[in-house]
Hints:
This protein is α/β, with parallel strands linked by helices. 37% of the residues lie in helices and 14% in strands.
Amino acid sequence: MRILTPGSLQLSLKLTVVLGSLWMVFLLSFPEKGWDPTYILRYSWLEYTDADGGPEKVCNCSAILRGEREALEQAKLLTITKDFHKSVQIPDEYYINATQDCSQFKLSRKYIPFPLSQEEEDFPLAYSIVVHKKVQNFERLLRAIYAPQNIYCVHVDKKSEASVFFAIWAITSCFENVFMVSQAVNVVYAAWPRVQADLNCMADLYNASTKWKYFINLCGQDFPLKTNLEIVRKLRSLKGANSLESETMAGEKKWRVSNVHQIVDGEIKGIGKAKEPPPFNLPILSGNAYIVVNRGYIRSVLEDNRVLALIEWAKDTYSPDEFLWATIQRIPGVPGSRWPNHKYDMTDMNAIARLVKWQWHEGSQGSLEAVYPECRGTHVRAICVYGAGDLQWILEQQHLFANKFDIDTDPIAVYCLEKYFRQKALAELL
Ligand SMILES: *[C@@H]1O[C@H](CO)[C@@H](O)[C@H](O)[C@H]1NC(C)=O
Ligand SMILES: *[C@@H]1O[C@H](CO)[C@@H](O)[C@H](O)[C@H]1NC(C)=O
Ligand SMILES: *[C@@H]1O[C@H](CO)[C@@H](O)[C@H](O)[C@H]1NC(C)=O
């Protein structure tokens, strides 16, 4: 048994009032941090039960995850029911109030309070999360990826509604290892500030702790497809390599980097002027905004002169998030990078960073032209917002995270993933 710190004693006393003396024995031997094999005996209170589920609990998730038709039809029916959608909504003010008592909030939401294994404690991760609305999406994502040994930087768009900002700020205030970015920017679709938001979090995370091994960036509509332990094991198996899309840029995308762009009235526009070639004649590669990279890659982003010159050069291009990380990944000497020869290209399906279903790559199952089966949810800007019917296929993929999920579109998809991964994380303890 370890010695209680003042913080954990205060926590214990508060909880005792809430839960009664039954918990006292448990709490007195329960330090805030550090892994101990005896936790295995005491984890059952962390299971998600129907009692703390929302209206989604009427669904049979195990049947949904197996793709059983009846269960999927019932789920689909619910997702098109107005009353059901209404019942799932949570106003921003709820979070502001509920987080006034942080220990009660974390306890009732069953945030993981200690590292679930020595292996995970020894391999902390750093997350950058960029959001602009939909607080419930954010909170459920945070809860799904939260572990006390990890560190989380949250960037809320500067132009977000005040209630969104305060709700997210209030949630982050409940955790020592979750913080708001030191400098928030006004994010403009397909323009430089989207990258700047991640860059600001990268700098904060790099400075805040020297311990973390890998960096992962997310947006509010991502959700994990692995437990923290599975993520750690996948990353360890990379042996220092990064995993992100980085491919030869298609001819029809080259205008994005060969013309000068500017933000005019909150929108990005070409100004009819050609750009200089990139610094050091760096080959520009194509990728996406979401990456899984080691600490050394982040150090290069913040300190390598070639990267700093590339960043300056990229500031007036179109959609720099879709080539900058991919290009840095192919600069020789960047830790975990790949040689710039096109034979070393990596597609989004081969990288583990993010699973996205693009509408034009969907097709019927078994069709050779199709990259993936048809979306069972709905499309937003040609990207699938997953429905419950997508889960069975999604869970077979190697990616750490998938995009997009939206509780306003299909809360059941998120609910069933939440339950599945919490159960799995606790089962891994045995
Ligand atoms: C849910 O589905 C599973 C798998 O088909 C089935 O075994 C189980 O009995 C179902 N549970 C309920 C409560 O209907
Ligand atoms: C505010 O939160 C407390 C618990 O933290 C709860 O008892 C109370 O009912 C909440 N008030 C509102 C208006 O939601
Ligand atoms: C890191 O944090 C320290 C302490 O807050 C601060 O003084 C320093 O300027 C920061 N360094 C960077 C590179 O942000």
